[in-house]
Write a structure and sequence with these properties.
Distance between the termini of chain A: 47 Å
Shape of chain B: globular
Helix content of chain B: 10-25%
Distance between the termini of chain B: 44 Å
Number of strands of chain B: 12
Number of helices of chain B: 10
CATH topology of chain B: Sulfite Oxidase, Chain A, domain 2
Oligomer: heterodimer
Number of domains of chain B: 1
Order of helices and strands of chain A: HHHHHHHHHHHH
Structural class of chain B: alpha+beta
Number of helices of chain A: 12
Number of domains of chain A: 1
Shape of chain A: globular
CATH architecture of chain B: Alpha-Beta Complex
Order of helices and strands of chain B: HHHHHEEHEEHEEHEEEEHEEH
Number of strands of chain A: 0
Strand content of chain B: 15-25%
CATH superfamily of chain B: Oxidoreductase, molybdopterin-binding domain
Structural class of chain A: mainly alpha
Radius of gyration of chain A: 19 Å
Largest sheet of chain A: none
Strand content of chain A: under 5%
Helix content of chain A: over 70%
Largest interface: A-B, 26 and 31 residues
CATH class of chain B: Alpha Beta
């Protein structure tokens, strides 16, 4: 009970602040060399991982409401945008610090490296979602169009998880965990689509005959 | 004392912290008397070594977990004393040796090598130990040995990472006999003048400075001399990405990333990348081993 009161009373603007603090904080720790022997890789991976986590949280909000009756819907836009900011930070570390602004390396990575290709397209897919995650766009756009744009998030999560799998040397515990959550979210999503419902009514009808 | 050479590169005083270890080395080697080999400076790099904190907190040792910080956290559970090493493919009667027997009479020296990881980073490490060939020369090898195979200890009760099938345990690596006999090929038993920390492959590990780090197998418990090219863990796990030779080569990319440059551990967030050198800078020393070999094919 207390937790749900807390959720209800937490203003969205405060949530933005809390969730975004790690971005400058980790960067500061990186500058003062508090991120271990390999601060660059740490920062790059941390931003990427947090981006993925927040993306998964965003996608969990609708099944959480549907199956567990936990209503976090009013925080969905905030968490989704936070995820996007982490992903932007992740890409900034890659471009500015990791490859040192080299367009040559960027282009060769985009031709040869499957995990970078997957990650790049995941990011591209998320841009229209980020741009329309505001009341102005919601008013301007027809709700069907808006919903269609925002269903791209499922493409983005599939690409993101591939990005993670393809860059890994082996199947680690984290990788199993994030892939598992992604698969669960996708299954629940598929089950809620009209097409799936239609098909299952047909097959149920077949069985009852 | 010649030992001062060591203090040029390290804040640590030269000492061995375990009496047992000193005893194991035998009286003759107690003082680490400089040998002619030590004078051959070219084998060590002049680069400034990484700090002990960096070297002992950034390790790939999947036997203790896949994160770089796992080995420092969990490697203390490995018992490194007593330690036995079994030899196969040798004709002498005795095949199993206690580590102390192996170390007896070996002139322990320092070698500062740059370790280039296949993942695209490098660090400079002041090892203590002896060339592998000092050991091989004491053995009676079977006549037609062409390769040397190494095996890491398999002890899931002490190595928590081995409880999961991350890799096909035990970890195995191998070299050609020519590579194994090369004076650069080193057995490390110490680091920064002290005993080798567990996370760095205690008590007995290989260091092959012109190959990617994963060839330098840790915590060795078995050494076999074979006719056929032995099974090696990473090249079997993913043959397209990791070859048997795995010589450091900036011109042969890993399928998923470039090997042209490397991140230098210890240079901080804004550190510049370093240009990777062919054979990690040892082309003069090891170039002849691969004369006429297509390094793109035999990566």
């Amino acid at each position: 009970m207390t937790s749900s009161i807390l959720f209800k009373s937490l203003p969205v603007s405060l949530l933005y602040c809390i969730l975004l603090i790690p971005i400058p904080l980790y960067f500061y720790w990186g500058i003062v060399n508090q991120l271990g022997p390999d601060p660059l890789r740490f920062l790059e991976h941390k931003y990427g991982e947090l981006g993925l986590i927040f993306l998964l949280v965003t996608l969990s909000i609708s099944p959480l409401f549907k199956y567990v009756k936990i209503n976090l819907v009013r925080y969905r836009r905030c968490i989704g945008l936070v995820s996007f900011y982490y992903i932007v930070s992740h890409i900034c570390v890659y471009f500015f610090l990791d490859i040192g602004l080299s367009i040559d390396i960027l282009l060769s990575d985009l031709q040869k490296r499957y995990y970078i290709i997957a990650g790049f397209f995941a990011f591209i897919t998320l841009i229209p979602l980020a741009l329309t995650s505001n009341n102005f766009a919601l008013r301007k756009l027809n709700i069907k169009t808006w919903n269609k744009i925002h269903s791209f998030v499922y493409i983005a999560i599939i690409l993101s998880i591939f990005h993670f799998i393809l860059m890994s040397k082996t199947w680690t515990g984290e990788l199993y965990f994030y892939t598992g959550i992604t698969i669960l979210i996708l299954i629940l999503k598929i089950k809620s689509t009209k097409l799936y419902k239609k098909l299952s009514t047909y097959s149920n009808a077949d069985i009852s005959k | 004392m010649k030992i001062l050479k060591y203090s040029d590169v390290t804040p640590y005083n030269f000492y061995l912290n375990r009496r047992k270890f000193v005893e194991a080395l035998g009286l003759a080697s107690l003082a680490f008397v400089p040998t002619p080999t030590l004078a051959k400076k070219s084998y060590s790099t002049n680069a400034k070594p990484n700090t002990i904190e960096e070297i002992t907190n950034y390790n790939n040792f999947y036997e203790f977990g896949t994160s770089k910080t796992d080995p420092a956290k969990y490697a203390q559970s490995l018992t490194t004393d007593p330690w036995e090493i079994t030899f196969e493919g040798v004709s002498q009667n005795k095949k199993k040796f206690d580590l102390a027997e192996i170390l007896k009479g070996k002139a322990i020296r320092e070698r500062i090598y740059r370790l280039r990881c296949v993942e695209g980073w490098s660090m400079v490490i002041p090892w203590m130990g002896f060339p592998l060939r000092d050991l091989i020369n004491e053995l009676e090898l079977d006549n037609n040995a062409k390769f040397v195979a190494f095996e890491t200890v398999y002890r899931p009760t002490e190595m928590r990472g081995q409880k999961r099938a991350t890799l096909d345990w035990p970890y195995r690596e191998g070299l050609t006999i020519e590579e194994a006999l090369h004076p650069l090929t080193f057995i490390a038993t110490g680091l920064y003048g002290k005993e080798l920390p567990n996370q760095n492959g205690a008590p007995f590990r290989l260091v092959v400075p012109w190959k990617y780090g994963f060839k330098s197998i840790k915590s060795i418990t078995k050494i076999s001399f074979t006719k056929e090219q032995p099974y090696t863990t990473w090249s079997s796990e993913n043959p397209r990405e990791y070859g048997f030779y795995s010589n450091v080569n900036p011109n042969v990319d890993h399928p998923r990333w470039s090997q042209a440059t490397e991140r230098v551990i210890g240079e901080g967030l804004f550190g510049e990348r370093r240009k990777t050198e062919l054979f990690n800078g040892y082309i003069e020393e090891v170039g002849d081993l691969y004369k006429g070999m297509d390094l793109k094919k035999y990566y």
